[in-house]
Design goal:
9 helices; Heat Shock Protein 90; 5-stranded mixed beta sheet; Helix Hairpins
């Protein structure tokens, strides 16, 4: 950035210097041209133009270097130049040489002064006027003007490097001062980059200072964007860690739940092997093996369904009448738990949602099973439907406060003292997974005597 600033200063200085030199040259030429016209009027003399004769003497007030010449159409050209002799107190008119006169004789008349180079005299501005019988030439040297221009160029050549160096020093100071906040932002990014983020619970506390997050400045915008990025990374890492912990817990819980029926099967198999002649023992062993096998099969099927839903397996997306599904599920619940009071609240108009009918039946069955298992006899369970979905309400003891926030997590179970039947804690987890796969949502509100699980589904 400093290099760019210095380059711009050099370009600007060169442009200003060139423009100044050109303007000064034009101004000096204009002033010199005015003096040349005065010299021409003096050479022509007063009165009407007359045929050119001898150059004549220079009048008073003529400056050194003034030349005057006559170039007749026929005859020899003559000319004088006013010069200063060394040691003299005044000026002396010297005759022009033949080479100088030849140069002047080759000029054409013009209303504007022109620049020529005279041998032995240097650069001159001259004005040529036509008269009857010849031409009159008057001119002045450009020596002083050339020296002025040369002094100006030398000054520019001297001042430009000094100005460039000053601009470079000031630019370096200003740029470094202005970029100091950006270096602090970069330092924050470097410190974050050095943190171990591969695994574990990551504490990502590094942030850009609040005074560097003002969106009204460019550096503030960068600082604010970095803080937003770090917040996103921190939340993503926290979510990843929670997911890893859930997977570990899921594997541990699944192993634990499978170990119990496997141990039971192994125990009764050993009993049957040791007492092969005892028909009662054999029937008992086979019955327990069959019971535990069914339990284990149900658990494995639930785990397999959860795994497929986690992998993004698509469920059927077709119009479903939730009324028939709810009627069937509530009818089954009345048979399984006649001690509960089961109510069904359906609207008068026909309902239709989009989804998978088999999985919707599984959702409502799991919700009713959860209500049946975790509420005492006499509890009223109300299933209500509306165009947006359905809900299951009961007036039982409700979820424990520390359990409500985790009710839909896998292998989540409450106090075993409240369980009337066994369970592994996958029922509500399956409900949440299936409803989410169908593009809906599920929510829970629970307090003693008032528990409602609400399922929202996409409309048909």
């Amino acid at each position: 950035m400093v290099g760019v600033v210095v380059l711009l200063v050099v370009i600007a200085a060169a442009a200003v210097g060139t423009a100044t030199t050109v303007a000064m040259r034009e101004n000096l030429d204009q002033r010199l041209d005015a003096d040349v016209r005065d010299a021409m009027r003096s050479a022509l003399g007063p009165g009407d133009p007359r045929p050119p004769g001898a150059p004549g003497d220079f009048g008073p007030g003529q400056q050194f270097g003034t030349l005057r010449a006559v170039v007749p159409d026929e005859g020899q050209a003559e000319g004088l130049v006013l010069s200063e002799e060394p040691g003299a107190t005044g000026s002396t008119a010297s005759e022009l040489s033949e080479r100088q006169l030849d140069t002047l004789a080759g000029l054409s008349a013009s209303e504007d002064a022109q620049t020529i180079g005279l041998p032995g005299l240097g650069s001159y501005r001259v004005l040529v006027t036509d008269l009857d019988g010849g031409q009159v030439v008057a001119g002045l040297p450009r020596t002083e003007d050339d020296e002025t221009i040369a002094d100006l160029v030398r000054l520019e050549v001297l001042a430009t490097p000094i100005g460039v160096l000053g601009a470079a020093a000031a630019g370096a100071y200003v740029v470094r001062r202005q970029l100091a906040p950006l270096r602090e932002v970069a330092g924050t990014a470097h410190r974050v980059a050095e943190l171990p983020l591969a695994s574990g619970d990551i504490a990502l506390d590094e942030r850009v200072s609040p005074w560097l997050t003002d969106d009204r400045t460019e550096v503030g915008q960068v600082g604010s964007a970095l803080n937003t990025l770090l917040d996103h990374v921190e939340s993503s890492l926290a979510a990843r860690h929670r997911s890893e912990q859930q997977v570990r817990q899921f594997v541990a819980d699944a192993s634990h739940e499978l170990r119990t029926p496997l141990a039971t099967i192994a125990g009764y198999s050993e009993l049957a092997r040791r007492r092969p002649d005892d028909e009662t023992a054999l029937r008992t062993a086979l019955a327990k093996v069959d019971e535990e096998s069914q339990r284990m099969t149900s658990l494995v099927e639930d785990l397999l369904l959860l795994a497929r839903l986690d992998a993004g397996r698509q469920l059927a997306d077709e119009p479903v009448d939730p009324t028939s599904v709810l009627l069937e599920a509530v009818a089954d619940a009345r048979i399984l738990a006649p001690a509960h009071r089961w109510r069904l609240d359906l609207p008068d108009q026909a309902l239709e949602v989009r989804g998978d009918e088999q999985r919707l039946h599984q959702v409502i069955t799991n919700l009713l099973t959860n209500a049946r298992k975790h509420t005492p006899p006499g509890t009223t369970v109300t299933v209500a439907a509306d165009p947006s979905g359905f809900s299951v309400h009961d007036d039982g003891p409700g979820f424990a406060p520390d359990l409500a926030d985790h009710a839909f997590e896998r292998f989540t179970r409450g106090d075993r003292a409240r369980h009337r039947e066994g369970g592994v804690g996958l029922g509500l987890a399956l409900v949440a997974a299936i409803v989410e796969a169908l593009g809906g949502s599920v929510s829970l509100e629970s307090r003693p005597g008032d528990t409602t699980i609400r399922v929202l589904l996409s409309q048909g």
